[in-house]
Amino acid sequence: MPAYHPQRIEPKWQGYWEQHQTFATPDLDRGRPKLYILDMFPYPSGAGLHVGHPEGYTATDIVCRFKRMKGFNVLHPMGWDAFGLPAEQYAVQTNTHPRITTQANVDNFRRQIKSLGFSYDWSREVDTTDPGYYKWTQWIFLKIHDTWYDPDFEWADAQGRARRGKGRPIAELPIPEGVDPVAYRDSKRLAYRAEVPVNWCPALGTVLANEEVVDGKSERGNHPVVRMPLTQWMLRITAYGDRLVEDLEIVDWPKSIRDMQRNWVGRSEGAEVDFPVLVGGEAPPRPSGPFPATPAEDVIRVYTTRPDTLFGATYMVLAPEHPLVDRITTPEQKDAVAKYREQAARKSDLDRTDLAKTKTGVFTGGHAVNPVTGEPIPVWIADYVLISYGTGAIMAVPAHDDRDFEFAKTFGIPIRAVVEPPAEWLRANASPTREEAPADPAALLAAYKADPGAFAAVFHDEGVAIQSRNDAFVLDGKPTAEAKPAITAWLAERGVGKKAVNYKLRDWLFSRQRYWGEPFPVLLDDQDRVTPIGEDELPVLLPDLDDFKPTGTPEPPLSKAKEWVNYSEAYRREINTMPQWAGSCWYYLRYIDPKNTERPWDPEKEKYWLPVDLYVGGAEHAVLHLLYSRFWHKVLFDRGLVSTPEPFQRLVNQGMILGETEYTAYRDAAGAWVPAPSVEHADKGPIRKGDATGALLETVKLDDDQVVKKGEGFVIKDAPEVRIDARAHKMSKSRGNVINPDVVVNEYGADSLRLYEMFMGPLEAVKPWSMKGVEGVYRFLGRAWRMVVDYEAEEVVLDPRVTDAPPTPDQAKLIARTVAAVGDDYEALRFNTAVSRLMEFVNAFTGAEVRPKAAMETFTLLLAPMAPHLAEELWQILGHESTLAYEPWPAFDPALLKDDEVEIPVQILGKLRGKITVPADADQQAIEALARGDARIAALLEGKTVRKVIVVPGKLINFVAN
RNA sequence: GCCGAAGUGGCGGAAUGGCAGACGCGACGGACUCAAAAUCCGUUGGGGUAACACCCGUGUGGGUUCAAGUCCCACCUUCGGUACCA
């Protein structure tokens, strides 16, 4: 009976914690330091919990339990990101209301998560689909709608740094003379409606955000996506581009994530330049005055990061959708242009990627004037220029841009070198006739100036300006870094250019043509003008529908709720819904005050709990969720609704857990083995490399006893010449390698699952699953149990060797060291080594005839954060009546961490030649004397000249001798 | 292509510039058992030796250092992100 039996222990303690409200967190506790530790809340899918979820959840749970023992007031909540497409698709298929499936999925997730014994304060559970929650999602949307961004507003942040740019109430927007104030305000709001080309997915019956489209197909379901113009809600996240980048400096996040966010925002500096269009052979007169805010009529405005190459701009390209195309196109080119534009419009992103290899385009017949050379240059349209980036038009400098080069080559457009590459570059790229190329640097440069197109590569780096002069201005000789500001200033003086900043980041497409999402709290009149709904009318409830099927057009499903839509005679409701991101943008704020019906959160509580001290989740949210969330938070900050500029102080990404390692061999139709290096993985399956017929190979799964390591890779044991693939794959239903946490809990218990996931390796690393590994930690927990409990007795009693005896000196040292090391490991999120330490402790004590009870208690407390059920049970068996959750973390005597004597290596010329035992505080002379006194070392040093002796006291001694 | 992370036994992994491989899995040997499971004890990087000695070894090639898995340079491979962003 008294064997380790998690199936008995775990429900018992989960019941205890629930009954005693052990982990309910007081809203405010000025007496203790606070700690807000957050998990990314899950989307409760029908598939249930995945072993990836408990990885991060266990890590944060350990930190929470550890910190409670250290005296912190810890906030650790959980909730559900429950709006979203899968529930809606399921509703369509089965005609079940998404609320019903969502409820069932939430219940299942809650059951699974509770079965793992996490110390969440369940009284703070939130659900984004709860009207009591989305009321405030709508409320925040109205705040965003009520805000404009003042790029010139100066303020100081908490660190006292001067900052520029802030979101302000729309009422404070200065209205220029002579404009319609309502329309002007609407044009400046952070939430606005715009007609934009959107990604319409007919199969899903919805519009997708750019981020939800992968290779021209929907991220969910892999359905084709086409572009079409629609009026949509947009959030002006681009206004916050600089702030979102700058404040990455003040958060404690992994560098890789900060880099990803920075790249996603994609800030670049350059210049805007106006190119006048030749109309009827004449350029429009150059306007006097400064660079106009919007380009004059018959002027093509371009954005470039390399204004220093302006002398090399030999043609221009407009995006096919560019408004000037019609104006510029000559009658002869009209048909060709129209045809190209139509093709481009019909192209999905997928087609565009497919065709990315060769540049296409059509000449418009029109010309524009290069503002520095005065030369007329042809204007083309091509879909390699995107309407949504920059100004939708480029000046093409084929000599110094890969894309322009390729295009110019295809269409025979002149290529003019205006930046001098370094001599080595010229030499290295002087092909195709490299042998005949002049070796002399001056001759090489002359060749480059004459025809850069003859060189093997495009020089797109910085260099020195050449062939860049006109009657009034000389750039030649200037390095790129100087040439850029010089020419920008010259252009600005003449009112034809100015310094400019651009972002890859686009405004956030914030509406969806779906049912299962938050309704927008706004009304539209017969002219589509927007009126926000009053705060007292929130929430705008999602109307019940019996029919969730897409309308088959971009018309959202909510259009079917006729009564709901018709708000009044004058107004109808907005029928788009918000995207899934909306609810997850601010859930961390609701946790601090989840039941408040008066406001989204109490400002006092917000000041106490924010920012989140530790946020753990998957790297798949590295960009979107975290960027959107930070954006909302900054708007709330600017509006005085939150007190910190950033929501998440420290971020850690847990690594993905892969399936078990698989050994795969390949066989052709004739049954012959095909070595893995000759196999290529095509879309439909494995084929022989270079096999034009594309005949699929048979994949053969092998057990680990059928394979053997040979050289760099694995081979079949019985056919050692056949290399095979040995690799762990992402868990997926189709591959059949998904591990269900329920199965692991049933078989080994939650403590084993928790401990195994922590023992696998560093939290951030990608790691393959291994059931054998779970058995390993399960055995360890069994040993820990038997270290304390008499497993031969009938009843659950202490092992007779557990007594009140004092620890031996060696035991005392081990105890102190384990306390110190495990505490450090928990602090630094190094759970894998913490487990190792506890294993060493158990290994030492199971061999001991005397097991001091105090040592067993200390061990139990150290184990508790990782394996709380077993720890609580042992704690009770050791004679304690209540939970150990708030027991103080064990103390230790630092003196015990030091040894009196240490064994140190003796090296000769850096090679290990012996070991000596020396007093821990032995000085250099003493150590050297002891080392020289060692018979073996003395013999080895015999006849050699000792040139130098390196002694690191307490560490090592190294004789440099020959 | 660009950005990022990582390459250490058969496997997961450990190692403030100072004894590479802690801990676990697997394997092998032993104890207990009629037997097996469970449990316990021992061995386990490669070569070499009767046993020592000794030699080799952290993706590859260089470098810095008394000393490099760790720092620097170049390259290779794998994984993740991103991609006509002017």
> Could you estimate the helical fraction of the residues in percent?
25-40%
How many H/I helical runs? 29
Structural class designation: alpha+beta
CATH class of the domain at 268-421 and 459-502: Alpha Beta
Question: Looking at this structure, what is the CATH superfamily of the domain at 268-421 and 459-502?
Answer: Valyl/Leucyl/Isoleucyl-tRNA synthetase, editing domain
Quaternary state of the chains = single chain
The largest pleated sheet is described as: 6 strands, antiparallel
Q: Strand tally, please?
A: 44
User: Which regions have little confidence, pLDDT < 50, spanning 5+ residues?
Assistant: none
The proportion of strand residues reads: 15-25%
Query: Using only CA atoms, what is the Rg?
Result: 35 Å
Shape: globular
CATH topology of the domain at 268-421 and 459-502: Isoleucyl-tRNA Synthetase, domain 2
CATH architecture label of the domain at 268-421 and 459-502: Alpha-Beta Complex
How far apart are the termini? 67 Å
Overall mean pLDDT stands at 90
